[in-house]
Write a structure and sequence with these properties.
Beta-galactosidase, Chain A, domain 5; primary methylamine oxidase activity; 5-stranded antiparallel beta sheet; mainly beta; Nuclear Transport Factor 2, Chain: A; EC 1.4.3.-; copper ion binding; 3 domains; signal; oxidoreductase; 26-stranded antiparallel beta sheet; 12% helix
């Protein structure tokens, strides 16, 4: 081998070593941290959105102090108040009248007075009742006025009040005392002395107005798991109407298909060996049905969503701005999330979009299950929206917002990080086309969506509430149901009411119905409702008159009155229903927004049911009514405990008034029937268990507004598609070659329990 060959080989070896070193150094070098670019935001009117802002903790404290000093009665902290005491049950924002707000927002009028709505339970007086006061002005209250009769047409009877945590504690104590009277039965059936059994309430509480008698279902309780899947077959009926806790009584006992007058009777039958007992082993944490503990160690990380140049939305106080959208957000402790003054390109589309109620109605051959109709607003949809887990409930880099409430205590509480806001890449084009004829090009736009989310844990179920805003000017509202199913003890013909999901566990069938209020203002307040659908007409072909054609044509109808605009649940409905403005777009069509409902609702309660009127909003998948200040909500927290004489009956809102060129509200029901099955253990998955609706522009614009999006992509066969200037997708390898800044994981959601 000559010297020249040696030198060449040596040079090649050095070059190879140098290349390998470069590769290794590149791999070991951490990517740079993503640099957030400042948002270019249009100036908004300073603080206007605060007219809808939830009360601050400081304002709540001021209201409590004012009431304590100005009502002339002794007020006991609700966290320890007995039924025979007076207490402040809750304090929330009193939303100003719409006319006042619009004068302020649009007409340069004065800012409406900031006021609170306080709910008080008066148990220590000759005529116990529930009273609602408007208190203001905030932050320094100087007046209060009783609005109970104005809102409800009379006083609210005391028995309609929601059950407080203190009342539940006293009931549980009564149940535990009664269980001590059946020690040998409990040891044999459940390997328990009764103190370690979980107690679950049902509702409503009786069969007629004035009743306050509740079935409670008992379960094996294993720490760190969902007890809802481990019923022991024992249920008890407690009467707790009397103002004096010492007079409450256990009225009935149910076990494994039989009813008994008391726990003593149950024990006597057991000792006499006339009772069939199912002997249950106390479940262990590693084998219990409801365990959500991981069964395998963590694997490789999945995809991570992040913004290479920072969030493209802005949150200021209670207002979000995102591209052409602006949204004001808030939370009611009872009814949950609510949005106001939703605008696109500066034009108000929706004045109010708010959750109203969530109904869960069960079937079973056990008394607790068969009588359960939970109205979750009375428990507190907003109050029980706890802290969200970053990276799972919402993207890790989402913006998290605290929510404050005052309920059953004189001290405000905070659910920190309980609402999240993020931009979501849906991984599907919003629109696209690949042209393979005449000319060759591609055009498209990613479906990026702004999401506002909160999640409520209502006993066993977790409801994920989503509000989404698309680049096309469309809004999407969706609820996903997850969490634990509620179950009954399997006995007799139990599978007529669900499926067996465990050795002695019946997953009981139930329906979920959810109600929303949508106050649309499409190009102004004065709107009408237009229905459009297709029909077929049979015609002779005009070019020969020898053949027939079934030609579809568009059938349009303006709905003139409320009765026409009330569409029964699960009945056929026009496929296109739009809130329309008298003002046309460029092409002569009324500027409109279409309501598109996605729902698989179960059957509504029969109309002749004694409690149907309390949930009469569920009769309709959609009802459009004249907007009235005296009809702010479709239900009431008092309906749960007296559904037989409902405080608010939505059916009364529909009285055939004209709805042409009026300020209108759409009331939308969505839901699904759930027949639990093996795959609902340990948890119900959200897949397939989501329903909702869209609000979509329909001739509101002159063209799809997303064409103005800077995210649009277009390139042709004549361009260099690798050139960043011609194709924004070519910019990604460099623009997104950075690591997101992830703050340390934090979760404090257990602190407020």
């Amino acid at each position: 081998m000559n010297m020249k060959t040696v030198l060449i080989l040596l040079g090649l070896a050095l070059a190879t070593i140098f290349a390998l070193v470069c590769v290794l150094l590149t791999r070991e070098r951490a990517p740079s941290t993503c640099q957030h670019l400042p948002l270019e935001q249009e100036d908004t009117e300073d603080g206007q959105s605060l007219v809808f802002a939830d009360l601050t903790p400081e304002e709540m404290v001021m209201v409590v102090q004012y009431l304590q000093g100005n009502l002339g009665v002794q007020l006991v902290d609700a966290s320890r108040a007995k039924p025979s005491d007076n207490c402040i049950a809750s304090v929330d924002l009193q939303v100003p009248a719409k006319a006042e707000v619009l004068r302020f927002l649009d007409g340069g009028g004065a800012r409406p007075a900031r006021e609170a709505l306080a709910v008080l339970y008066f148990g220590n007086q000759p005529d116990p009742n529930v009273t609602e006061y408007v208190v203001g002005p905030l932050p320094t209250p100087a007046y209060h006025r009783d609005v109970t009769v104005q809102k409800y047409g009379g006083k609210v009877p005391y028995h309609r009040r929601p059950v407080t945590g203190k009342e539940y504690m006293d009931i549980n104590a009564l149940i535990h005392r009664e269980l001590k009277k059946a020690p040998q039965f409990l040891t044999t059936c459940c390997e328990s002395d009764g103190t370690d059994l979980a107690i679950l309430t049902t509702a409503p509480r009786g069969f007629k107005s004035g009743d306050r008698t509740t079935w409670f279902v008992l379960f094996h309780n294993v720490a760190g798991t969902g007890y809802y899947l481990s019923p022991v077959g024992l249920e008890v009926l407690v009467e707790h109407r009397d103002l004096h806790v010492s007079r409450w009584q256990l009225r009935k006992v149910f076990y494994n298909g039989r009813y008994f007058a008391s726990t003593e009777d149950l024990e006597q039958e057991f000792l006499a060996r006339t009772l069939e007992v199912v002997r249950l082993k106390k479940p262990q944490a590693d084998a219990v049905l409801g365990s959500m503990r991981p069964r395998h160690p963590p694997d490789s990380l999945g995809p991570l969503q992040f913004e290479p140049q920072g969030p493209r939305y802005n949150v200021r106080d209670n207002q979000i701005t995102y591209q052409d959208w602006s949204i004001t957000f808030g939370m009611n402790a009872n009814s949950g999330p609510r949005l106001f003054d939703i605008r696109y390109r500066g034009e108000r589309i929706v004045y109010e979009l708010s959750l109203q109620e969530a109904l869960a109605l069960y079937g079973s051959n056990c008394p607790g299950g068969m009588s359960t109709r939970y109205l979750d607003g009375s428990f507190g949809i907003g109050r029980f929206a706890y802290e969200l887990v970053q990276g799972l409930d919402c993207p890790y880099t989402a913006t998290y917002v605290d929510q404050h409430y005052l309920a059953e205590s004189d001290t405000p509480k905070t659910n920190q990080n309980s609402l999240c806001i993020f931009e979501h890449d849906s991984a599907v084009p919003l629109r696209r086309h690949f042209s393979d004829s005449q000319s060759f090009y591609y055009g498209g736009l990613r479906k990026n969506t702004l999401v506002i989310r909160t999640i409520s844990t209502l006993i066993n179920y977790d409801y994920i509430w989503d509000f989404m805003f698309h680049g096309s000017g469309a809004m999407e509202v969706r609820v996903h149901a997850t969490g634990y199913i509620s179950t009954s003890f399997l006995h007799g013909q139990g599978t007529n009411y669900g499926n067996r999901v465990g050795p002695h566990t019946l997953g009981t069938m139930h329906l979920h119905h959810v109600h929303y209020k949508v106050d649309l203002d499409v190009d102004g307040q004065m709107n009408f409702l237009e229905a459009q659908d297709m029909e077929y007409e049979i015609i002779k072909d005009p070019w020969s008159m020898q053949n027939t054609i079934e030609r579809p044509y568009l059938h349009r109808k303006r709905l003139e009155r409320e009765d026409e605009a009330a569409f029964p649940l699960n009945a056929p409905m026009p496929r296109y229903l739009s809130f329309a403005s008298p003002k046309p777009n460029k092409w002569g069509h009324p500027r409109s927004y279409r309501i598109q409902i996605i729902s698989f609702a179960g059957k509504h309660l029969p109309i002749n049911s004694s409690m149907e009127r309390s949930v009469s909003w569920g009769r309709y998948q959609l009802a459009v009514t004249r907007r009235k200040e005296e009809e702010p909500t479709s239900t009431s927290i008092y309906n749960q405990n007296d559904p037989w004489t409902p405080t608010v009956a939505f059916a009364d809102f529909i009285n055939n008034e004209t709805i042409t060129n009026k300020d209108l509200v759409a009331w939308i029901s969505v839901g699904f029937l759930h027949i639990p099955h093996a795959e609902d253990v340990p948890n119900t998955v959200a897949v397939g268990n989501s329903v909702g609706f869209f609000l979509r522009p329909y001739n509101y614009f002159n063209e799809d507004p997303s064409v103005d999006s800077p995210d649009s992509v277009y390139f042709s066969s004549e361009q260099d598609i690798k050139e960043c200037g011609a194709n924004p997708l070519s910019c990604l390898p460099t623009a997104a070659a950075c690591a997101p800044h992830l703050p340390p994981f934090h979760f404090g959601g257990f602190l407020n329990l």
